[in-house]
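Database export, one record per block. Field names are fixed; values are copied verbatim from the stored entry.
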Amino acid sequence: MRSTGETIFVDEYKQETSFNIPLVSGFISAIFSFMERSLHTNDIYSLDVALLRFIFATSEIGNTTYYFILLCQRIDTLGEYQPKLNAVKDKFIEMYYEELVDWSGGNTAIFDGFRKIQKQLFQIPFVTITEPLKDTLHEKITSITESTDNLDGIAVLTHTGTVVVSTLESNTLIKVVQILEGRYYSGAKTIDQLVSKEDEGVLVLIGGDMVITAAVFDRSTSLGASLMESKILSETINDTIYDAQ
């Protein structure tokens, strides 16, 4: 969309959760206008609203600022999606630079050919997790969670924090994603192991060759026991993914 509030290209992945695009565009324009007038910057990378997240990229083309916006779930991470949004932005500008420089409104259908391209860019995976493999992993972690008395939940995530499968409570899962995001943007691109006592219980993150395993144990479980059980769990999950590649 343009800084003047006009939306020139929209692609919705889930039609059943369609948004009022003019209303969302007005909301985004108001945010950037406020930031520019009050803080003299338009460097906004993301905005979290309830369980939704807006991720932004901007570009000056001619005399106009263009905003590229991805609306996703709160657990969709910046580490995974900011580079993809930047790739979409760069490709869009490469294909339609002349049209964007001289844009005076009107026919937005000229951009329709970009739908297939942007879908391809967003679907480039960090690690290949097919739907059958997701189902296998979900069955495995559900079975382990239900059969282990001191284990409250498990999540499997990529190293950029994207959730593959999870049996964790939503608030706990968001906390895990926040931890990984904080590390990612501080320069820690991978994780070995992390053990922490939280309100929810003992949280353990174990980094493997393929994915990160997050497990939450009952608070009565010792840190040592939680770590040992998590390492075995991580090995099982990473072996399952490795065998499927």
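Remark 1: The two ends are 39 Å apart (CA to CA).
Remark 2: The longest strand covers residues 52-61.
End of record.
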